[in-house]
Amino acid sequence: MIVDRQGRRFRNLRVSLTAACNYACTYCVPDGKRLVAAQDELSADALVRGVAYLIEAAGIERLRITGGEPLVSPRLDAFVRGIGSLGLKDIGLTTNGQLLARKLPLLLDAGIKRLNVSLDTLDAEAFRRIARGGDLATVLEGLEAARDAGMRIKLNMVPLRGQNLDQVLPMLAYCLERGFELRFIELMRMGHLSKPGAGFAQQFVGMPELLELIAAHYDYVQADAPLDATALRYEIPGAGTFGIIANESVPFCRTCSRLRLSSTGWLHGCLSSSNRHYVGDLLDKPRHQALPALQGLLVKALADKQEIAFAGGVTVMKIIGG
Ligand code: SAM
């Protein structure tokens, strides 16, 4: 097992199935153009082999499928079927929910029971302004269908000053009514937001302000979370739970166990580092040749992790998988 001086190791893998996305969220894509798939995206077979090799070489236990938007990928079907037999403890998927109703039978059939759905507002006009793609009603229909099918659902919301702060309480009420866990993600200085003057500070809303907004309407207590969880969790007794991924206010780098594999075959050990390590060529090699080389690259990827706090990065979330 590869472990660093702080005792960190890779346990959780995120695979970006494609860089393509049917949204162009303002904080993710600066020019508003929706993304297309990269020319050199790996086949589903190669990505499944990547997961299998990383389970062995790094001790990966849990997998999250992401993107881009994973549900737009033509590789989704083969990939979810391929990873089902790898013995992972947990498989989840992060999606914007636009194609959720349509893809639900496939996800259920592949044994996926946990979804994180990104939704920044319940206001149709604000939705159009922030996501710059898709349709709110379609997402809400997908969420109802997934809930009826017994999926465990978390909603991810990025609070943005001047754009959706009025939605914090309506989103929380919506989630509590349906048994969804709402998770607020503090805005990260990634991609264009890492550049000075890009408006990060003006849009950023931190955990203390969120908790104050919530405290005006709900009593809550801090709840348990796994040691390497990114979210701080809170319970509203008798009503449900919510979480805050407070990458700026309460950095979680010291316990981070995440590794990312991009759709084009690059390993990323840290969201806040622009270092990446190419493994695409190794995934065509047999196990006995691939694993030693992979282990060398994993040592480098682990060394890319920040010591204490997230410092921002030029890498764009949609490319490496949020
Ligand atoms: N398309 C999928 C989705 O919408 O969930 C998966 C990819 S998306 C990049 C994953 C998550 O990253 C979303 O919840 C999105 O809101 C979040 N995200 C993207 N850029 C971000 C940023 N700069 N700060 C915080 N969250 C960000």
TrEMBL record:
Stored Pfam families: Mob_synth_C, Radical_SAM
Radical SAM core domain mapped to chain residues: 5-224
Keywords attached to this entry: 4Fe-4S, GTP-binding, Iron, Iron-sulfur, Lyase, Metal-binding, Molybdenum cofactor biosynthesis, Nucleotide-binding, S-adenosyl-L-methionine
Domain of life: Bacteria
Matching InterPro entries: Aldolase_TIM, Elp3/MiaA/NifB-like_rSAM, MoaA-like, MoaA_twitch, MoCo_biosynth_MoaA/MoaC, rSAM, rSAM_sf
Cofactor: [4Fe-4S] cluster
PROSITE patterns per UniProt: RADICAL_SAM
PANTHER family reported for this sequence: MOLYBDENUM COFACTOR BIOSYNTHESIS PROTEIN 1, MOLYBDOPTERIN COFACTOR SYNTHESIS PROTEIN A
Name used for this protein in its record: Cyclic pyranopterin phosphate synthase
Species the sequence originates in: Pseudomonas cuatrocienegasensis
